[in-house]
Amino acid sequence: MVGLMKKSNTPKAKTQKTTTQTGPKKSKKSKTGSIPKSTPSKSEKPSSPKKKNWKKWILYGIPILIILALVATLIVVLTLEKFGEDKEEVEVCETKECIMLADHLHNWKDDSVDPCQDFFKYSCGKYNEHNVIEGPQMTKKTRITEKLIKEFLKKNESSNSKTENAMKHLFRTCEESNDESKKYVIEKERIKYIKQEAIDIGWPLADPSWSSSSFNLPEVLRKIPSILDDERSEIGYGLFKLRIPAARKVFIGATSEYFFHFDSIKKDIERELAAINNIPTSSPNEMYSDNFREINEALPIFDHLIKSLLSKGPRSWGKVKNKIYGWKNFLPQAKKIKDLVYKDKRITANYLVYKYVSNSLRWIPVSHGCDHDVIKYLPLPSIRVFVRNHFDKGGLKDVDKLVEDIRSGFIDMIEKSKWIREKTRNGAIRKAKAMKKTISYPPELEKPGALDEHFNIQLDPSDSYYITMRKIDRASMNLLLDFVSSDFSMGPQFTLEANALYAIFGNSINVLAPIMDDPLFHSSFPNYAKIAGIGFIIGHEIGHGYDIPGIFFDENGNLNPWHDKKDEPELEKKIMCLINQYNNYDDPSFGKKLNGTTTLGEMIADEIGQDVAWRTFKKLDLSQEKKIIGFEDYSIEKLYFQIGATNWCSPRSALKLDDQLKKVHPTNSFRINGLFANEKAFAETFNCPVGSPMNPVKKCTFF
């Protein structure tokens, strides 16, 4: 068409074309080359300026449009490529541990719930659909760890480790004792053995020739000690007890062992011992006294007993004697105990033997699983098995660094606190810097045979369950005193559970191995996930150094208040804020019937832990952090809080209210909702309206 139009407008050089005229004639082409005007034929209409423009638009516009279209396409392609490049730059953690974390975050939450109304339900509303373990993730991980130990015991493979063989021997003899076909014979032998032990101690009821002149109190007591508590840090003697917390100290205190069904003893010793133990303590300043010399003079037996429990005997005494204290006004009671036991030596001897027999009879194999016995009575060897076979040591440096980062975050919080005075500030920082740490397992015990060397237990293949338990008990007491004398590196708070612990008397924290593992932690997790997970738990344990009674103990774990008393009125206001918040919290299981006084210490530690963890989180360069699968477009701040909430996801509590009120920890629901409601950053992150449950007008903070 364009070609045809060009042809019709081209003048002929020689031919004169005649057309019918309707107007005056037009002149011919002039010499100058101009075209004379003529009347076009019917088929040739004159070209108007508009048509010429249209033709030019056709001639030049279409190519221009094509070029513009190509340019636009190129821009779109480049933009899409750039967008794709940007997408690729958002790195995602794809390890199996991160995938499991993503599964928890996606599947446990209930999207139908407004996070500003109930963050616990928003984060954990569908937890029950995916879990059967009662309790939060730490409980779940502990149960998994216990099953791994049970698997190890069931294999019954040979080992070069004395302590591992002790574990297997205890497991085997426990199962044999539960065998119905062997129970009667084993029990008969046990009773016979215990009776003979009682006679060897000196039992007036079983020995007609017994004479009070032969009664030697220190020697009788040396034969009867037993570990009493589940933490395995108390040694009972019937008349008193030794307590060795996770610190290189020994505390002597009144006993809590009573045997009320022995009438001849109940009338005298039981009643008096109960009175001794019930003397109230008005303040933390009266918890213990540096008065061992006076106590030992009042009742001169303690040096003898403690020396007998040291594996190196008198050689270690010099390291221990200055680390022994009287517990809760024990000095005046020691004098009463002396009068009591020597008033009638026969009754005292019968009582002490009866105490020994009663403690011995409690060693009965559990029917629900002998692996529980092994873990309970041999916790340190059990931890060693877990570390050796199932623990990723690659995370040790990460956790060690995390402890230091959290410590730094705590110091930053103290330095910026607006209400504490200089004395309180300096004391708190000094204590934080001096806080000792054990990450997973003491390095010195990593050496093959190191634990065997310290855990001095000699078992014979023929040893029954009872004899094995008696030997384990003695070896465990040796470990406690060896720790005090610095001959053993790990304190009595060792336990096979996913947790971290703070020792007030040693100003130290212990991050236990099982918690340094999936799903609570993994070295491949993004840093913000590590901080929201065990970072908060580490901060919580550090916070116990500043709760009640933490503020009364100095950087060495000694009873020495370091805070400015002028800060106490403000401190009391903050304490009451937390107590009232918990009292008025509407818990899904218990309603508004909780007691904030009982849980105060844990709530203070939670508040400090969350504050410190958030400060540590804010120091991260989030542009360098990997995202979690499915949360690529989700803010890392939101991820931080949601990961923190999954620590406490748990089913509805099965406890009765009376049982819950005895717990020192607040409910899991409150540990999410109550804690984050006090965090201004939470409300900002989720844009919660002022006055909503998760953004109350009044917030309870600590430092």
From TrEMBL:
CDD domains: M13. It comes from the Eukaryota. Keywords: Hydrolase, Membrane, Metal-binding, Metalloprotease, Protease, Transmembrane, Transmembrane helix, Zinc. GO terms for molecular function: metal ion binding; metalloendopeptidase activity. Residues 115-225, 269-442 form the Peptidase M13 N-terminal domain. Its cofactor is Zn(2+). The chain crosses the membrane at residues 57-80. InterPro entries: MetalloPept_cat_dom_sf, Peptidase_M13, Peptidase_M13_C, Peptidase_M13_N. Residues 1-50 are annotated as: Disordered. One of its GO terms (biological process) is protein processing. GO terms for cellular component: plasma membrane. Residues 499-701 form the Peptidase M13 C-terminal domain. Residues 10-24, 32-41 have a biased composition (Low complexity). Belongs to the peptidase M13 family. This is Peptidase M13 C-terminal domain-containing protein. It comes from Caenorhabditis nigoni.
